[in-house]
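Q: What structure does this chain adopt?
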Amino acid sequence: MAKARTPQNLNTRTPQNFNRPIQRDAPLLRRGKLVKPGEGVSIWWMGDDRITFAAVSEDTGSEYAFWLDYPPPGTGPPRHVHSREEEGFFLLHGNLELKAGGIHTTVGDGTFFAAPRGIPHEWRNIGENNAELITFTTPGGNEGFFLELGAPGDEPPREHGTMPVKEINARTPRYGVTYLESGPNGPDGPDGRERPLPIGEGRGPTLVLPDEGDRRYAAGAMYNIKAAGLATADAYTVTEITLEPGGGMPAHRHARYEEAFYVLEGTAAVLVDGEEYEASAGAAVLVPWGVRHRVRSRSDRSVRLFNLTVPGGIEEYYRAACRPSPGPGSDPDGDLNRLRAAGSRFGIEVDSDDQGMPA
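A:
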């Protein structure tokens, strides 16, 4: 007997209903946001680790939180595990010792790594200077743990401090994270292997080196997919985007995806809901679902972006609409036509009158 369709079944993402929020122009309660380099909500964590939040749950409809971390040498979070958040990291500068699941390695500039919920993980800055890394969690909410315990960022740094695991865990239940003891009270089994929470069984961490990824190209933009929805339980997709001089992403809007861009290199001209921003290296741009936006390079230099989309799945759009590489011939009009034609299958509406070139 066929299974009856329930209201929950009707809310799943299908080609029939994926575009409804855009087609109906559902009310938009949030606007796009530019966070300039150095802006955001800053705290001192454990005395001397500066953390700056570019996006908290209030900015993203609780879909994700996004922050910059500058840990001093020798510091890093003790081993911990999330019960509801997927967590990802992109190392901008520095060298970290990483332990996550079965991985124990050293990583450097440009490495992306992610810990699924239920998988214990930790990292430590083993370099001689402060490291710099992007951290995000999805869904949002975990950032409240840092904001509750951290010292205000407008104060001078203090000496590095620590807190007993038992005291930390007295504060963490509402934030879905548990810090783990080492030794006989820890999560290691009799064979010495770390045991994930039941929700993490069958999954492992993601580690992508700087030159790795699934590359796709269209209209002067190279999309290097670092983490696809298949690896993140459909929680998010991470893409490193490189815009050629004069190239860019055409104006478009998403029926479902929340999006964040962080400028790694160069200066991007970003149009969000009719307002244009100049986003230089170190700036973040937050784009809610349903908001029209466009990203371009207007200089003779390439622009490199870290791109987070929530939930996962947008990589299938890139694979359907883009070429594997620029190839010997340039075909920007053909690229834009493919982006438009494929968009409706993935809840993405590309403007028909946008040529994808600088004004």
